Amino acid sequence: MKNVYFLSDAHLGSWAIPHQRMQERRLVRFLDSIKEKAAAVYLLGDMFDFWYEYKYVVPKGYTRFLGKLSELTDLGVEVHYFTGNHDIWSYGYLEKECGVILHKKPLTTEIYGRVFFLAHGDGLGDPNKSFKLMRWLFHNKVCQWALSSLHPRWGMWMGQTWAKHSRMKRPDGQEPPYMGEDREHLILYTKQYMQLHPNVDCYIYGHRHIDVDLQLPSQQRGKKPRVIILGDWISHFSYVVFDGEHLLMSQYIEGESKV
Q1: Which of 20, 64, 107, 212 might form a disulfide with 229, Cβ 3.0–4.6 angstroms?
Q2: What phi and psi values does residue 26 have, to the nearest 5 degrees?
Q3: Residue 173: partners with Cβ closer than 8 Å, 6 or more residues away
């Protein structure tokens, strides 16, 4: 039985990350190290800092990463790509050229007999009105058409500038630390969701750039669903691996990772 891997939030190409090329190469080396052991890889969003597909143009760069995705799918590995709030604007290139399976909404799926709820996490439980407005604008078809009408030189510049500002408006460009079960939006959302969906065994999210792994008490006797927030591939280099029995959170350290 081969492994299933979960990771998110590389933000490749970010103007706020000084080690962009090293970061992409490290991600590619990790994917190369698991290609013979993987049945599936789930990329839970924001793998790019800004990804926008025009009809005849896609963003410059990322050739190592895109090539590795194509190699994985050519080998028969299922690669599931979830759009996040930085890479919403995917219109077929990744599926046609790289062979990935694209998800634009949360997914409930069974893997090796266990039920997983998988999502990037943006918009789930977050009451911030300005973020909700921004998210609505990003998903709005008219706004997407307006951006598509711009020359890619200006459209990509606008997107990259927004993405950099989004990161640098925080102290040191870092996410707020873990706020606890009673304040963390994704955990609060999970607690509500699991009341109506007691069959889910594990919830896995990206988006928050913090690594969290905890169990929540369930109304279903003896069941304690796990909630995992994946961290990122900027500073954590963290991922989750499922071998059909054990679900482990790990960190990719060059030359040391075994799973």
Answers
A1: 212
A2: -65, -45
A3: 16, 167
